[in-house]
Specification:
single chain, 426 residues, alpha/beta, Rossmann fold, 2 domains, six-stranded parallel β-sheet, 14 strands, binds nicotinamide-adenine-dinucleotide, binds uridine-5'-diphosphate-glucuronic acid
């Protein structure tokens, strides 16, 4: 049994802590957010994440998982300290390293001799050096171990990774870290720290590129009368392309793709390389938000000024309560700028959302349909498939639906009298 500290009890930190405890390690997880830690101590998981509550309760009940707000005390005597604190986008586009540096400065004097500090946060190339300097502990090795989990399936992704990437200066410390993951059957890619840090940004940038690519192909499909669902199917069977991340939608969002693509563009710029390809990927994404709004306006008869628009879904994708950089929220903002009266429903959003004060937050999907000239399905929650569309149609001023996720069957909607538009479907 290895003693481990995990700093940050967010999507990555809490998942890492709970899964490492599940492997049989003794884990303490900290956060500066006292409310969050108070909830976790009582087995209450403050984020929507499948399987996580069960693992947290398992760890609490067998004593392998504990929580604290005291970083200095938590790292006392542990062999590994994982940094899972935020690296948000700063105004320049670069990743804000202040949380990482503050955490490193705080724990430096308290780390056990020859212990290992692991950067799991997504950090710019060269960040292991930044952490080393902040720690002021030459005996402590700093490794990069980027995380590839997705929100909504964080536990599953942590327990079934495609690969484990470890960036280390010394082979011995990489071997020590890899031993923690012996329960996983995944290839371990050991690199130098700069390459590991680059792999993480490149992976997110590539996935964002795939989604922007299929969104661009969807626009082409609309122009030439092809069906993007069939095109994606035909593309995806090519093993060099693969079927994942070829779902067109309202553009990608979330807490990572937007900030990580911006950061990689800045990393390249700072190093003297113009990453024009990635800038194009970001531009396609911004256009995509506008394209779906324009189609909704068309469905509303050309204007949404002073008219009710119902929005189904606010989170950046289904399966999470995370609204950071959500395309759905972006769509709502566009609609409000166009003068619409927006009513919105999301199964995970019960409290009014900061920054969306003008939106009427509904407690059930049908309330969002009342008096609407058009419904915009913005997040692919499964429950939207099973709405009573006869009832929806009856509640609306006129039945029209913009399906930004290609979730519904157009033919079925049209039988209920809807005017229906989707993405890349003639
Ligand atoms: P998050 O905002 O959900 O959680 C971070 C937590 O760290 C917060 O609860 C915050 O209060 C806490 N914190 C801040 N400073 C602290 C400190 N000094 N000590 C202890 N706790 C502190 O963030 P997240 O989504 O878990 O992301 C964390 C990092 O992992 C980011 O760099 C992100 O890019 C990366 N990442 C995220 C995902 C994802 O799906 N969310 C996936 C892979 C990588
Ligand atoms: C993404 C990556 O998938 C993870 O590997 C990575 O660890 C993580 O970012 C991170 O670094 O934080 P996540 O942001 O949770 O995970 O969500 P994804 O499932 O990747 O979706 C991102 C966005 O792309 C969402 O808005 C989603 O709706 C959109 N998307 C995804 C599509 O529009 N089409 C697709 O086919 C796939």
């Amino acid at each position: 049994m290895t003693r481990i500290a995990v700093l940050g009890a967010g999507y990555v930190g809490l998942t890492t802590a709970a899964c490492l405890a599940h492997f049989g390690h003794q884990v303490i997880c900290t956060d500066v957010n006292e409310e969050r830690i108070a909830a976790l101590v009582n087995g209450v998981v403050p984020i929507v994440e499948a399987e996580l509550p069960e693992l947290v309760r398992e760890g609490l009940s067998n004593g392998l998982l504990s929580f604290s707000t005291d970083n200095a005390d938590a790292v006392h005597g542990v062999e590994f300290t994982f940094l899972c604190v935020p690296t948000p986008q700063s105004p320049s586009g670069r990743a804000d390293m202040s949380y990482i540096e503050a955490a490193a400065r705080e724990i430096g004097p308290h780390l056990a001799r020859e212990s290992i500090v692991v950067n799991k946060s997504t950090v710019p190339v060269g960040s292991t050096k930044v952490v080393e300097r902040a720690l002021r502990r030459p005996d402590v090795a700093v490794l990069s171990n980027p995380e590839f989990l997705r929100e909504g399936s964080a536990v599953h992704d942590f327990l079934h990774p495609d690969r484990i990437v470890i960036g280390a200066e010394s082979e011995a410390s990489a071997v020590r870290l890899s031993a923690l993951f012996l329960r996983l059957s995944a290839p371990v890619v050991v690199t130098d720290p700069a390459s590991a840090e680059t792999i993480k940004y490149a992976a997110n940038a590539f996935l964002a590129t795939k989604v922007s690519f299929i969104n661009a192909v969807a626009a082409l499909c609309e122009a030439v009368g092809a069906d993007v669902r069939q095109v994606a199917l035909g593309l995806g069977y090519d093993r060099r392309i693969g079927p994942e991340f070829l779902r067109p939608g309202p553009g990608w969002g979330g807490s990572c793709f937007p900030k990580d693509t911006a950061a990689l563009i800045r990393i390249a710029e700072d190093a003297g390389y113009d990453f024009g390809l990635l800038a194009g990927v970001v531009a396609v994404n911004e256009e995509q938000h506008q394209r779906v709004v324009a189609k909704a306006v068309e469905l509303a008869g050309g204007s949404v000024q002073d008219r009710v628009v119902g929005v189904l879904g606010l989170t950046f994708k289904a399966g999470t309560d995370d609204m950071r950089n959500s395309p759905a929220v972006e769509i709502v903002r566009h609609l409000i700028r166009l003068g619409a009266i927006v009513k919105a429903y999301d199964p995970t959003v019960r409290e009014p959302v900061a920054g969306l004060d003008d939106v009427e937050l509904c407690q059930d999907p049908y309330a969002a349909c009342e008096g609407a000239v058009v419904m915009v399905l913005a997040t692919e929650w499964d429950e939207f498939r099973w709405l009573d569309f006869d009832k929806v149609s009856g509640l609306m001023e006129r039945p029209a639906l913009m399906d930004c996720r290609n979730l519904l069957e157009g033919a079925m909607l049209r039988r209920f009298g809807f005017e229906y538009k989707a993405v890349g479907i003639p």
